[in-house]
């Protein structure tokens, strides 16, 4: 909740306190003066509204506090608790009015004295309550405050109660003795209806009932995020103005952690755009994608085992699957330990694809993460560039450029760029680049590795 929203809620509640106090006092004084149970009942109703408004003014200051170590979901439910207190007061008042109205009807109490002042204060009360109900309702919608919404509902009902009292006083003025008591009963019925309506929504909030339609909307918003396979489970609860959403979301198991983190971020943005104040707990459930290839499945198995593999080759030999893998391990490991690691990986692959799968693992030392190296002398770079251009002269590869040579502890590493026809297939380009690389290593035995980058003409 922003500071501006909190200040707005507190300011509207404070203005409402002053209006409630003045109108309740005026109605009570006039009701006592003319002996009108209906007007006294309406004044008591307004007094409870005054109490409710004062409570609301304090509660909204507490409910807007951020979450802390003792209240992980914030303080929003303080508003629901205050609403329950107001509901209890409303039903106590309604019961008291009904008892007194029945007593007056049964005893034949005289009607109240006619007073234009009573009608005047009621019409003023109607205007004030209409203004307050509208202002509180707009603020409640803007800040999603349950306490302010309850206050707005009170004042809207006060308008109807005031009309009921006007009707009762009018009937009494025309000689209908029962008019004032009947109006008081009408006020009690309206108070009871108000308590029921407010109590139902408040209790639903306290019982963590999901708001109508929010679950489906949130599920659709998360499901529309690129990369989401499905939403397995979703739960929603309201605490004050905030929707707390817990979602178990299916994502492809082949996705890396950073891509899943991006999906989480987009899901939070999607539900926030839909519901404004949201707090999303996103649990990623890795699942096998329907179009996941055999190679991708093997890479997932290796990654889940914390192993680095490359050059994964898969063949189908007449219904029999064969898999070849290069497995990188710590170069200082004893062979028996490295073999056990490879054996466990092979068993995992057979568990995934069947025991008849043929798996061969080539064990090799893992490259250092940041091996020490230096740039070769310009003369050496020129020599290797000249050789590369010569090897490419009889090939579809041309324009050898951006040649770089580095000296490392294991030997020289050569990087170069070259060009090929734009419509030539990747396989053809790769075969020709491989041939140039092999010839370079034959001509320069100290070259450990060659990395070529082919590009079409006029590429940057």
The gyration radius over C-alpha positions equals 40 Å
**What is the helical fraction, as a range of percent?**
55-70%
Q: Indicate the mean pLDDT.
A: 82
Instruction: Say how many strands there are.
Output: 10
Strand content: 15-25%
Shape: rod-shaped
Report the major sheet: 4 strands, mixed
Provide a descriptive summary of the structure in words:
58% of the residues lie in helices and 20% in strands. It has helices at residues 3-34, 37-63, 77-107, 116-143, 146-173, 179-206, 214-223, 257-275, 294-304, 335-353, 378-392, 426-443, and strands at residues 230-239, 242-252, 278-287, 308-317, 320-329, 358-365, 373-375, 398-408, 411-419, 447-455. It has a 4-stranded mixed beta sheet, covered by helices on one side. The chain has a 3-stranded mixed beta sheet with strand order 1-2-3, with helices on one face. Strand 4 (308-317) and strand 5 form a beta hairpin. It starts with a helix and ends in a 5-residue tail after the last strand.
Task: Describe how the helices and strands are arranged.
Layout: H1 3-34, H2 37-63, H3 77-107, H4 116-143, H5 146-173, H6 179-206, H7 214-223, E1 230-239, E2 242-252, H8 257-275, E3 278-287, H9 294-304, E4 308-317, E5 320-329, H10 335-353, E6 358-365, E7 373-375, H11 378-392, E8 398-408, E9 411-419, H12 426-443, E10 447-455
Quick take:
By secondary structure, the chain is α/β, with parallel strands linked by helices. The protein is 58% helix and 20% strand.
